[in-house]
Amino acid sequence: MISLRPARNKATTAALAVLAATLTGLAVPAAPAGAATTAPAAVAAVPHRILFDNTKAETAGNADWIIGTAQPDPLVQNAHPTTEKSWTGALSAWGVALQKTGQYSLKTLPAGNTISYGGSGALDLANFDTFVVTEPNTRFSTAEKTAIMRFVQNGGGLFLISDHLNSDRNNDGWDSPKIINDLLTSNGVDNTDPFGFSVDLSNISTDNPRAAALPSDPVLHGPFGTVTGSILRSGTTFTLKPADNPAVKGLVYRTGYSGNTGAFFVTSTFGNGRVAAWGDSSPVDDGTGQSGNTLYNGWDDPAGTDAALALNATAWLSKA
Description:
Strand order of the largest sheet: 2-1-3-4-14-13-12-7
Order of helices and strands: HEHEEHEHEEEEEEEEEEH
Number of strands: 14
Oligomer: single chain
Strand content: 15-25%
Distance between the termini: 52 Å
Helix content: 10-25%
């Protein structure tokens, strides 16, 4: 039988009781009320908040650039998704992969809404860490462009995905290359090439762009794996202008290109925020979506490591 000296305080009493119970095979008693503990209380992790846009005709034509039809909350369709078919949308693989980590909270800004920053709405950009815009087909309003730029300037992440020239799916005279360039040159915050790149007005039919040799880059070598390259199936590239913003960096390049031309995936910063841009929507297409759309599985295409690129970039933009 083990003899224990009287405890000097409640914390010591609790600790000795646990030791005695362990050695004698007794059940561990509950700690006395008010007892001190040596281990800190567990703190719930705050998820990284991602908002996917669906206000700029992202589902026009054969496009289906949404993570799910349940909007704004994809969990309404399936609260415990396991595959891209758990949610309905061509970006569902992207969304489900983030959801399964338990580290991200995902929402969609539904069609008919206005992009805002600093307002009182639940879907205002101020409530999110990263804003994803995949192949916008409707021009941003003046107020929306200012909201996006202020969001990034104050620490937000912006993920822009373009497509090729003349990819105007809703026939309003604007396609994604022109819309993104308009954001960069007429936004009311900084109209002088704020991110240090522009979208090339090109239509490149096919290529398998390769990753640059940047062994310490957090997007190419991130938490979701190593990026070796991507796929380009009717898309475009970017021209870098480091004199305008020295933070701009090309990560993936079209075959035969390097430096300031032919960049297929670029990153930059603006103020306290971060920016990533991709030259084609095909790499994030998972081949599933709403019926009636013609979709292709670029997400799993063995010619690229598109899933790792999309997910690593999301993590970097969100400062995860």
